[in-house]
């Protein structure tokens, strides 16, 4: 199989660092459940202009070096890579490719290829399975016939599709990909 894997909020705990910076700079106490929009629009009355300095940190890429990996990502991808092709597909701008690769190497995240996608993650690659959290990308992939494991987040709770299963952790991904009946085979 070819498995497509998003990076931010699937492998890397990006939202937590972004929210930490926002709370620190703006004197807020936002929790994950407050972040109901992927772009942070309309979160706690914050306007996009208030976020400019924080998003600048994203644009220069240094923030990507300091993210924590999400529990279970590396171990599960190692298990999957023994049998499947792992393609990381990120909407990060291509200019942060170097810092992204440095972070992936530092945290020993296994993959066979990496794609810096623009606007859509439907790119002609016949992904059999895709791990994603961003609702628009997940919907496009699902409508294109790719089965998506959607990492649950307050910004994607409305999304339901016959080609989408919601997961809450990498343990859920393992349970989906390695069902108990397959043990020993
Ligand atoms: Mg993401």
Structure, explained:
The chain is of the alpha/beta class and 185 residues long. It folds into two domains: 2-13 and 69-182, HAD superfamily/HAD-like (Rossmann fold, 3-Layer(aba) Sandwich); 14-66, no CATH class. Helices cover 31% and strands 15% of the residues. The protein is built from six helices and six strands; from the N terminus they run E-H-H-H-E-H-E-E-H-E-E-H. It has helices at residues 14-26, 52-60, 73-81, 97-106, 135-143, 170-177, and strands at residues 2-5, 85-90, 113-116, 129-132, 147-151, 164-167. The chain has a six-stranded parallel β-sheet with strand order 3-2-1-4-5-6, sandwiched between helices. Helix 5 links the parallel strand 4 and strand 5. The longest helix is centred in the first third of the chain and has 13 residues, at 14-26. Bound molecules: magnesium ion (MG). Magnesium ion binds next to loops.
Small molecules (ligands, ions, cofactors) in the structure: magnesium ion
Radius of gyration: 17 Å
- Kindly identify the CATH topology of the largest domain: Rossmann fold
Our estimate of the beta-strand percent is 5-15%
Question: Mind sketching the topology for me?
Answer:
Blueprint: E1 2-5, H1 14-26, H2 52-60, H3 73-81, E2 85-90, H4 97-106, E3 113-116, E4 129-132, H5 135-143, E5 147-151, E6 164-167, H6 170-177
Parallel strand pairs: 1-2, 1-4, 2-3, 4-5, 5-6
The protein binds magnesium ion (MG).
Defining key terms:
single chain; 185 residues; alpha/beta; Rossmann fold; six-stranded parallel beta sheet; 6 helices; 6 strands; 31% helix; binds magnesium ion
